[in-house]
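Reviewers asked in the last cycle whether our approach scales beyond single polypeptides. To address this, we selected a multi-component target totalling 637 residues and predicted its structure end to end. The input consisted of the following lines:
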Amino acid sequence: MIIKIAWKNLIHKPWNTGLCIILLAFGVGIISLLILMQYQLEQKFSRDLNNIDLVVGAKGSPLQLVLSAIYHLDAPTGNISLAEARKVMDNPIVKKAIPLAYGDSYQGYRILGTTIGYVENYDAQIRDGRLFSEKMEVTVGADAALRTGLIVGSIFYGTHGEAKGGHVHENHKYEVVGILEKSNTVLDNLLLTNVASVWQVHTKDSENKNSIDTLHATTLDLNHAHHGHEHDHHHDHDDLVITADSMDITAILLKYKTKRSIMTIPRFINEQTNMQAVLPALEINRLFYMIGVGGSTLKLIAGGIILMAGLSVFFGLFNRLRERKYEIALLRSVGYKQLHLFSLLVFEGTFLALLGYGVGWGLSRLGLHFLNQQAQHDFNLQFDNGLVTGEGNLLLLTIGVGILAALIPAFQAIRMNVSATLSEN
Amino acid sequence: MIKVKQLSYKYPSGPLIHFPDFEVKGGESLLVLGESGCGKTTLLHLLAGLLRPTSGKIWIDDKLVSQLNNSQMDQFRGEQIGLVFQKNYFIESLNILNNLIVSPYSNNKDHAVTISKRLGIEEILNRYPKQLSVGQQQRVSIGRAVMNAPMLLLADEPTSALDYRNCKNVINLLLEESVNNNAALVIVTHDDRLKKEVHNNIELFPITNQMN
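The resulting structure, written as C-alpha cells, was:
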C-alpha cells in the first residue's frame, strides 16, 4: 500500500512530478550521452590503431597526420616522395609497412590506394568477390557499399578530392571487384584500390602507356615492402622500375619487429628526412586528454543539472509535506509505523529518480540518433546504442540523488507530532 | 472494552490534566462532554495512543496499552482502534475504495464494499475525496474507522459542524457500527444535541479549575 500511495502521490501532482523528472532527465541525458560517446570513441580509436606503431607522412601537425592516415577523419598533411618513403620501409627493423595514397572519392567515401597488407592488418574478411589486385580494381568497405549502393561488378568514376560534386575524373573508371565484411574499423567506410590506380588517375601523362606500366611495377614493389609477411608473391623483384620513385604517396603505416626501436626510428625520420614520424598512440592519448577536458566540463554542467534536479525533488517533497501533513498524520492514525512513513517519502524520491533516469536514457539515445546522422554525414562515424557500464553507475548515482533528496522530508515526516497536527483547527 | 484509571497528562509547558476513571463495554457507548479547552481531544488522543499518558493506565480488551512502545502502539491502533476526526482527512491521491482500505491491516476490498453498502456509499467508491460532499466524506470516515472491526471506536467532535439532520444521521451510524462490531464507542464533543442519543456520559471541566 505504501508503494501504491507513493506512486499515486506522484501521479496526483503531474506538474510537480514532471518538473522534477525533466530536470533529472536533462542531467542524466547529457551525462549518459557523454559517457556513451567517450566510451565508443575510445573503442573505435583503439580498434583502428590496431598494430600500427608509427605513422610517417609529410611534415605538419602530428595529430592531423594521425587523424588523416589512420582514421581518415582529416585532410592529409601533404605528400611524401616514394623514394624517401622507401628508405624507411626498407629498414630491416620494420616488420610491416603499409603505404597509403589518397586518391579520389566517390559519393564522399575516400578511394584509398594501398596494399593488401592494409586489409590484413584489420583482419577484415571478404563478403563478396575478392580483394583488389589489378589497377583500377576496388574493394569496398561494408558501410560504404551499403550507402553508395556499389556491388561487385559496379563501374564508377572518382571525384577529385573529398567533396561531393568536385571534378569527376571521367577518363578513369574504377571497377568494384569485392565487398568487405563489416569489421567495425575504418575499413568499413573506405574504397580500397592499389597505389598504382591512384597514380594513374592523377599523373598528367597518364595516357602514356609506358608510364603506367612503370607505376604498375612500383605497386608490386610496394606489396613486397612488408617484410616478414608470408604472402606468396607471384611477381618478381626484377620487374622493378626505379623511375617510379619520383611518384608521391601520402603516408606510411609502420609496424616494428621489436618495440625497442619505437623511439629511435622517429627521431631518425624527423631529423634526417623531410618527413615526420608520429607515434599514433601518443597523439590519440593527447587527443583524448583534450576531449576529456571538454567532456568533464560538460559532465560538471550535467552534474550541476542533476544537483538542481535533486534540489527540486527535495523542495518538491518538502513543500508537499506541509500540504500533506494531515495525510501523514492520518496514515499514522490508521496504524502505519514511523518506518513506513519514512519509506513512503524515500519511495517517492526513488520513483522520481527512476523516471528521470528512464526519460534521460531515452533522451540520450534520441540525441545519439541525431548525432549519428550528423556524424555519418560529416565524418563517416557511427555510434552504437549499446549499454555502457558507466551508465549503470549513473543509474545508481541518480537513485542516490533521489533518496538523498527525500531523506530530510522523510525525517520530518517521522518526527511529526501526530496529535498536534490532528488537533489543529 | 476500554477501561481508564487515574489517567493524567501534562503538556511540556502546560498544566497537568487529570481525567476521570471510566469503563465502556463492547457495543456500549460513552459521551465525553465539555467546553473547548478542557482536554477532550487530549483524552481521545491518549485513548488512541497518539499521546502517551504522564501517569495512569488504559486497558483495551484487558491489554494494558499504556505500556506499549510507539511501534507496538501504532500496530495496535491500526488493528483494534477506529478513529473518526472532526475534520475529514483523506489521502487525496487515492480513490474512496483505496482510502477505505488504506490501513496496513485492512486490505480486504470485499469487506470495504460490504461496509460501503451498509453506509450507502457504494456508488462513490471510484471517486476521489475532493469530489464528495461533507456528508459523504463523513460516511467514508466512519467506514474507514470500522474497516478492521475495531474493539474501540473513537470519535472527536463528529457532529459539531453538521446541521440537525446530518448530526442525527452520523450519530446513528456511529451507534449502529459500534453495535455491529461489538466495539466500545467513545465520543468526545461539546455538542449537547448528542445527549439525547447517548445517555451514558461524563463531563470534563475547564483545566484552570483543576489546577493546584
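The beta strands of chain B are 2-10, 16-18, 22-24, 29-33, 55-60, 63-64, 81-84, 152-156, 184-189, 201-203. We regard this as preliminary and will revisit it once experimental data from Aim 1 are available.
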